[in-house]
Write a structure and sequence with these properties.
281 residues, Alpha-D-Glucose-1,6-Bisphosphate, Chain A, domain 4, 7-stranded antiparallel beta sheet, 7 helices, 15 strands
Length: 281
């Protein structure tokens, strides 16, 4: 086992670089340098399990051992996955089980340096020496460009069926679909079919503000994925994943250009936090 080090300078603040690394669609973009269609399944919390997968659900079973937002992320790799199932240890996996992959971000005068240390078995050295610089160049392009998608997540200690029903059925939606206690969702309609619409009424409790949040479904895969476009044409993807009997609910959405990216991330996350509170009660 050898430890390789890679580094790149990016003309962006480290907060933006951090999300360029770990927001779902950004991660799936820069990791194409390793495997087309790569993705990760996790709640991205320190101590949590994470699956690094190819499109068929094959890959590595790992753990997030360090997460210091905007500074450091460290993974420890333990074993193989096949069809999203952890495989027993083999003589081959013993050679790399426990290997680490660490990302450090440092910022100076608006330029963020990303440094990666990764433990690699010698038979894969040439591959990673070729692929990692390409991946970091893609990351640089993402971080130095306008933000295209934002990711928010929550983890739910409930059955997949229960989470799906409470996320999609109007009688439940009215109980959680608002970002703060001074707002509510007095009405919800949801026609859960491709080409059909949903309409959620959002209103301040003092009656001074109200609007309808409207979307049209592009894809509906029960208890797995929803894709819809909202009235202004922006796309939203909702994913339902399960690790160790817990549901990871992920929303990826295209930002609008009125409010800051940080404010939009906070607002959508607040609604998901409200959904978690309602679902887990």
């Amino acid at each position: 086992m050898k430890t390789l080090t890679f580094s790149i300078d990016i003309s962006a603040p480290k907060e933006k670089v951090w999300y360029s690394l770990w927001d779902d669609e950004n991660y799936e973009n820069w990791t194409t340098a390793f495997s087309e269609g790569s993705f990760a399944v996790s709640d991205w919390n320190e101590g949590s399990k994470i699956y690094f997968c190819d499109p068929n659900g094959n890959g590595m079973n790992s753990k997030i051992v360090t997460k210091k937002p905007f500074d450091t992320m460290t993974f420890k790799h333990f074993g193989e996955l096949k069809d999203f199932t952890e495989l027993p240890e083999t003589e081959i996996t013993k050679t790399w089980s426990g290997s680490e992959e660490r990302y450090d971000l440092t910022e100076n005068n608006g330029v963020t340096t990303v440094t990666v240390h990764v433990d690699i078995v010698e038979s894969h050295l040439d591959y990673f020496n070729d692929a990692f610089p390409k991946a970091l160049e893609i990351l640089k392009n993402i971080a130095e460009s306008e933000t295209k998608t934002i990711t928010v997540k929550t983890t739910l200690d409930a059955s997949l069926e229960d989470v799906w029903n409470k996320f999609t059925q109007p009688e439940h939606i009215v109980n959680w679909n608002f970002a703060s206690d001074d707002w509510h969702c007095p009405k919800a309609e949801n026609h859960l079919e491709v080409g059909q619409n949903f309409v959620y009424t959002m209103a301040s409790k003092d009656g001074e503000m109200t609007f309808d949040f409207v979307g049209t479904y592009q894809k509906v895969i029960p208890m797995k994925k929803l894709v819809y476009t909202i009235a202004d044409g922006r796309k939203v993807t909702v994913k339902f994943d399960v690790i160790d009997s817990k549901v990871i609910l992920t929303e990826n959405f295209e930002p609008e250009n009125i409010h800051s990216v940080a404010l939009q991330r906070e607002g959508w996350q607040s609604i998901l936090n409200n959904f978690k509170k309602y679902t887990n009660q």
